[in-house]
Amino acid sequence: MKLWGGRFKGSVDKLMEEFNSSISFDIRLFKYDVEGSIVHAKGLNKAGVLSDDETNLIIDGLNEILKETDINHIPDDEDVHTYVERLLTEKIGDAGRKLHTGRSRNDQVATDVRLYLKDAIKDIGSDIKLLIETLQSIADEHNNTIMPGYTHLQRAQPVTFGHHMRAYVEMFKRDLSRLNDMVKRVNIMPLGSGALAGTSYNIDRRYVAELLGFDDVTLNSLDAVGDRDFVIEFLSFSSILMMHLSRFCEEIVLWSSREFDFIELDDKYSTGSSMMPQKKNPDAAELIRGKTGRVYGNLITLLTVMKGLPLAYNKDMQEDKEALFDTVDTLKICIEVFTGMIKTIHVKKSNMETAAKYGYMNATDFADYLVSKGIPFRKAHEITGKVVLYAIDKNCAIEDLSIKDLKSFCDSIDVDVYEAIDLKNSIRNKKTIGSPTLDEKEFR
Ligand code: ARG
User: Fold this and answer.
1) Which residues form the Fumarate lyase N-terminal domain (predicted)?
2) How far is CA 441 from CA 154, 162, 421, in A?
């Protein structure tokens, strides 16, 4: 069955038919297409287009179809909308042929995709929440695990592993807030916009929107059917979230290397080598980092598809679905695998602490100590630089230098300097909101 045969004399080329068809992927919208159709029938009934009997026949038929249809079976129909209408007509006859009154596949598909996305957003939102909770509980266990903090991947100042985990908590909280914020733009109903110019049937769109769970209706029919901003917004949220996961994965890969040796991944989330028997590889982290590229690709795909389109609907827009579905699937599995992987990591606390001792990470504290003795910071910086150079030459840490040695750089230096440059005190002394802190309870 075709929804548009009347105007044609000849039949469509076989390859063209295959090319044009979207059923292999838009079958995923089946449930939403049926749901939208049920409510459209109610709208037509309220508008006086369908009788009560016809409406009930359509609604019962659609509900049965929803129950009976195996969506793993891909039929020959052009798209999911054609499929649902065919199944309904086969089931209830002529009343089924009335369902498409005042509706186009253009407002229909835009509505279906929004309904699908609303569910996907809920699903992904709870995955992100679980990830945040997992990171928070790891952070709570490591409030006093001192590790090197880096800039330029050079040891910079001591932080805690808890503080490092909470940096990612902040990122994922922003992702969640972006996701929740987008709902107010996704949750607007295009149905009733027709093919591009609305419909002459007096359908109460707000009534239909309420039944479908939308907050409001779109206000311009051309925009309603020609808009995919909501998909692009989701893909852009997804790209940012994947960028965060990917940075985290990069750290996991580094940390699990022999060179860092800060963590060991659980066997559940590692793989081996077919040739090198000793290998334990962080494949989960690498794959998530790799899949980030594919999500970025989906964003660029749709931005590029949309950039040259005149109003309103164009068939190019059928390309939105694979990019969206693939992103939803990729995001879900990446967040879930990542959460499992991070939940089971073994933190090598003492290796982190040892690494924090080397690399002159208390140099800033040393300079701050001089400042506390009345020396201007710029001068203190210079003196400290010289002390570090001297210690490098002696192949030792600042705290290994004798007070006599230290005093030769600046007379104001006293034995209380050792306390001031202690790593724990370095963290303890941080005072601004957002600085790392120690959980002092543990020291009591
Ligand atoms: N399969 C199409 C899509 O996904 C549905 C809308 C088709 N509309 C049309 N007039 N050909 O975009």
Assistant:
1) 6-297
2) 31, 15, 22
Q: Of residues 137, 257, 273, 372, which has the active-site annotation?
A: 273
Structural domain count of the chain: 3
Which atom of ligand 1 approaches the CA of 78 most closely? 1
Model ipTM? 0.97
The reported pLDDT for the residue numbered 2 is: 83
CA–CA distance, 317 with 314 (Å, rounded to integer): 6
209 lies in a domain? no
Which residues form the domain of 429? 359-443
Write out pLDDT tens, residues 130-182: 999 999 999 999 999 999 999 999 999 999 999 999 999 999 999 999 999 99
My answer on whether 160 and 306 are in the same domain is yes
For ligand 1, is residue 318 a contact (CB within 6 Å)?
A: yes
Q: Are residues 291 and 397 in the same domain?
A: no
The per-residue pLDDT for 177 is 98
- What is the CATH classification number for the domain harbouring 166? 1.20.200.10
Beta strands 346-347 and 263-264 are: antiparallel
Co-location of 89 and 159 in the same domain:
no
Listed in sequence order, the residues at least 6 apart from 29 whose beta carbon sits closer than 8 Å to its beta carbon are 80, 109, 112, 113, 115, 116, 321
- Cα 303 to chain centroid, rounded: 18
Tell me the CA–centroid distance for residue 314 and ligand 1, in Å.
8
**List of the chain residues with pLDDT < 50:** none
Same domain, 174 and 228: yes
Indicate which atom in ligand 1 lies nearest the CA of residue 26: 4
Distance (angstroms) between ligand 1 centre and the Cα of 107 equals 9
- The pLDDT of residue 443: 57
Q: Which CATH number fits the domain that encloses residue 429? A: 1.10.40.30
